[in-house]
Amino acid sequence: MELKELVTQKLKDKFSSINFSFTEYRNELTVSFDKKNIVEVCRFLNDDQDLQFKLCEDVTAVDWARKDNRFTVVYHIFSLKNNFRLSLKADVDESDCAIDTVSSIWKTANWEEREVYDMYGISFNNHHDLRRMYMPEEFEYHPLRKDFPLMGIPGSLPLPKK
Amino acid sequence: MQKLNKDEVHPKIIEALLGADTDITIEDALENEMILNMGPQHPATHGVLRLLLRLDGETVMACVPELGYLHRGYEKMAENMSYYEFIPHTDRLDYLSPMANNVAWALAVEKLAGIEAPPRAQYIRMMVSELARIASHLVAVGALAMDVGALTVFLWTLREREKILDIWDILCGARFTNSYTRIGGVANDAQPEALAKVKWFIDQFDENLDECERLLNTNRIFIERLDGIGVINAEDAVSLGLTGPSLRGSGVEFDLRRATPYLFYNEMDFKVVTYNEGDSLARYFVRVDEAKESAKIVRQILDKMPQGETLANQPKRVLPKKAEVYSKMEELIHDFMIVNFGMNPPVGEVYSAVENPKGELGFYLISDGKGYPWKCKIRSPSFVNLQAVPHLVKGHMVSDVVAIVGSIDPVMGEADK
Q1: Predicted ipTM?
Q2: What's the mean pLDDT in A48-65?
Q3: CATH architecture classification, B1-69+381-417
Q4: CATH 3.30.390 occupies which residues in chain B?
């Protein structure tokens, strides 16, 4: 499809120094790259007149339960102009469990990133309001990590005061 | 609602509330700022939504929503059960339109596993999603009217919704939590009685909706409580990620049924309803008009619905019919394998989204080739739409907060997952 080629070509032309990897599965295009470039790539995809990925549908993370690059942060963005969906991926290592926020580009990312922080413990640099989304602030664990047991940890949720 | 002292709330929430940049200025400020707690048990918050409001007099300066009171950890549970077992759980996401959630889940898993449901099953799915849309919008309109003080309409719209629940009862035996779809089709074929009842419902629906509409559109209190309240322009709405009627009320013509057609929506003749005002009244108008468009779609579906199978013929992935399991060896083996070890889609990941009554419901699934998903992310429309509430309520009165939350129409089962 030509839109996929257009996105691929534009990204390669604009960021010649970044090492992109493009994959396609079930007719969906996914772009993976290093996490330090996330903000500039997102800003370009949002601002470019031909692409206009104005709608950030989803930000989430995957815990691969492996030693290197344990997490992958996944963004699903949609272009209202072209009716085209694109996935972006950036690996995050457990030793440096942080990635830059994109909430300055898409306001939606604010809560989505808070949810990722709550569930996976990945923190987002420069996020202006990084609190837990669902769990109470006193909770110490991150439930969607693969090492968190399904039954929960007894006593980990404190009862409200009084 | 209760007034809170600062030491009763977690310091981080206070920080978010007081640190929120507010550009609201009031002449003769009353200098009696206070923090008001609304919910999570407040009846007008549509479930267990908790809003913390920073007020000056009666004007909202800033608002911080607190979620998680209905958090059941569905994403964690999905990682520990097979794809079939998760179908009943999708009922409990947006509990006002369980059928539409079933369809969304089935489509996502089918995309992951590479299964295609037969045409009749797809038409039935389309029919139930549209009826679910009508049912959900009826509740939304009724509850919005009740939030601003018009109680009668709620009873009238619920009477209409009751007829749809009766159709569910005939179709699949359950009124609320349907679990009607299966991977690769639907649980059972739509019986002639069910289709006859759908036809009867659609024939009398327009007239009854008109009745409700007349009651509201000529009601000066209702109009004035909503007109110009909670305005959001198109650019902000897209940036905040609004989808569904809340986005189309701001004049953005975005509907996944049109943008990325699934099922047989590309063969249906319907209009994507948009209003340009972007206020609560516009969102109400979008819902009413969409219900009418949905009725139009259902009428076309009844005309065009083909005969044939309702379950895909892929024995290794799709559960066989119960009668065959009891009488045939092969089917018994497949049933045993799928129930005990799952259907094992190939390694890969997909994001599949459908247009639900509240907005875009997406499932992001990763399969590692085993029976359970490695990851399941639910992109729920209510969660994202609620993010607009602090933006919408700024500068309005406390009583308008109720109307604005009602016009966004969140369902907390879905927002909290």
Answers
A1: 0.91
A2: 89
A3: 2-Layer Sandwich (3.30)
A4: 1-69+381-417
Q: With contacts defined as CB-CB under 8 Å, which chain B residues touch A150?
A: 76-77, 80
Give the closest of B112, B238, B374 to A54, CB-based: B238
Cβ-Cβ contacts under 8 Å for A87 (sequence gap 6 or more): A28, A29, A30, A31, A74, A75, A76, A77, B351
How far apart are the CA of A98 and the nearest CA of chain B, in angstroms?
A: 20
Tell me how far apart the alpha carbons of residues B177 and B203 are, in angstroms, rounded to a whole number: 26
Say if residue B299 is exposed, middle or buried (CB neighbours under 10 Å; 0-12, 13-18, 19+). middle
Mean pLDDT, 10 residues at a time, chain B of 417 residues: 67 72 51 76 78 84 86 90 90 90 92 90 92 92 88 89 92 88 89 91 91 88 88 90 90 89 89 90 92 92 90 85 86 89 89 91 91 91 91 88 89 88
Q: How far apart are CA A120 and CA A114, in angstroms?
A: 10
The model's pTM is 0.90
Give the architecture-level CATH label for domain B74-311+345-379: Orthogonal Bundle (1.10)
Question: In CATH, which superfamily holds the domain spanning A2-125?
Answer: NADH:ubiquinone oxidoreductase Nqo5 subunit (3.30.460.80)
Nearest-by-CA chain B residue for A104: B239
Instruction: List every span in chain B annotated with CATH 1.10.645.10.
Output: 74-311+345-379
Q: Which of residues 97-156 of B touch A (CB under 8 A)?
A: 111-112, 114
